[in-house]
Protein: Putative hydroxyquinol/catechol 1,2-dioxygenase
Organism: Corynebacterium pilosum
Amino acid sequence: MLQATGRSPVRAAHLHFMVVAPRQRKLVTHIFVEGDPQLEIGDSVFGVKDSLIKKFEEHSPATPTPDGRVLEQSWTRATFDIVLAPENC
């Protein structure tokens, strides 16, 4: 089926999240890495939306992480909003 639709079984780089909070609906989502060539081929599970593609900024080892740590290796950071709906929606 993937071959017939011209899609690859390989998915673009992505991270999954499950977010829970009191009196809020649980959210399960993911974000994709902007610039991944696999995004141009198409997602085998049709899970990519433009709003889920995020830029990951690379930082050098000397740059402190948001929590103040200094790492021995470079690290990346993506910024995005997570909005939870009240559980009674």
In short: The chain has one domain: 2-77. The chain is about 10% helix and 25% strand. The mean pLDDT is 91.
